[in-house]
Automatic annotation (TrEMBL):
Signal peptide residues on this chain, from the entry's feature table: 1-28
Keywords noted in UniProt: Signal
Name this polypeptide is given: Rap1a immunity protein domain-containing protein
Species, as recorded: Thiorhodococcus drewsii AZ1
Amino acid sequence: MSHASSTSVLRFACLAVAVLCVAPVAWAERAETAPALWGYGVKSCSAFLAVVPRADIPPELIDEEYFRYREWLSGMVSGLNLVTGRDVLRGAQIDAAMSRIRATCEDDPGDDFFNASLRLVRSLGQLKDRSVTE
């Protein structure tokens, strides 16, 4: 890893630690309001299922929206890996995780992509079964 990229990773890690230290205090002060969630995680499972490609679709024809969900999941997993200090997917690839989330969403299309993603991580035993936003 180059010096510049290791410096960037260190800065990001320091920022993440600072946010994690300050956020609980801020959330406790306004306990009646849940923290805001951003990005594709707030979209419904039914919206995600609408863009999931069929198995016979060539990669170049996959809807760009699907890749946005995939990138959102990659960011969430990376953040959880940094915070927990371990691989929350236990060696699984993002595409395998997307398949599992698809199955979860098919079971409950009214849920959101964030909670479906967290259920996957919890099922792998990498997070306690409680809200990450507490």
